[in-house]
Design goal:
This is TetR/AcrR family transcriptional regulator. The chain has a single domain, classed as Tetracycline Repressor, domain 2, CATH 1.10.357. By secondary structure, the chain is mainly alpha-helical. The protein is 68% helix and 0% strand.
């Protein structure tokens, strides 16, 4: 979860659960360990969540909802905004997620199939809606893209941006600002290359 200035106890639990699940796998973490990470007993977690399955569902559904909501905010009123600015805003928002919520990327890749059918379908539906926001923004800036090519390129750019958990030790990478700028340039370059256009920005 993206941190807030004063996280609630539920948010604290979810943040630690995401970290532990990402580090050791869903089945490698017990409720007692999650409780200890936030300073409460394992059984005390059940006042907030029905169990680990509920935590995992809230993490993966929740981040999908947040990405879609953020994407919608960034594309509202796009008709009156330069297409380049809209796409840059979407890229910047996703980079914030990729740099700040790395455990959730690992969780999605590794644990999505553990969700109940209804929750997994909800995640997929939210993700499809998020992708379509990008497809529309990309095609406004690069009208030479047809829909299938734009959609494929959006997915490829997500793969690029979501590679952050696999980029090595933090100390071996540029600082956050430098990494953000690098990822942004790479994403814009990928879209330009996909459209056969000169890179912009």
């Amino acid at each position: 979860m993206t941190p807030t200035a004063t996280p609630t106890r539920r948010e604290q639990i979810l943040k630690e659960a995401a970290r532990l699940f990402a580090e050791r796998g869903f089945h490698g973490v017990g409720v007692d360990e999650i409780g200890a990470a936030v300073g409460i007993s394992g059984p005390g977690l059940y006042r907030h969540f029905a169990g680990k399955d509920a935590m995992l569902a809230e993490l993966l559904v929740g981040i999908s909802e947040q990405l879609l909501e953020g994407g919608r905010r960034r594309t509202e009123g796009a008709a009156g905004v330069a297409p380049e600015a809209v796409l840059d805003s979407l890229i910047a928002g996703h980079i914030d997620f990729a740099l700040d919520d790395r455990p959730l990327i690992t969780l999605h890749d590794r644990e999505l199939d553990r969700l109940r059918d209804a929750d997994r379908k909800r995640v997929r539906r939210l993700q499809r809606q998020y992708v379509e926001l990008w497809v529309e923004a990309v095609r406004r800036l690069y009208p030479e893209f047809d829909e299938p090519a734009a959609r494929a390129t959006v997915h490829a750019v997500f793969g690029l941006l979501n590679s952050t958990p696999h980029l090595g030790r933090p100390g071996a990478l540029p600082g956050r600002a430098g990494m953000s700028e690098l990822l942004h340039r790479l994403a814009r370059g990928a879209f330009a290359a996909g459209a056969g256009a000169p890179a912009r920005g």
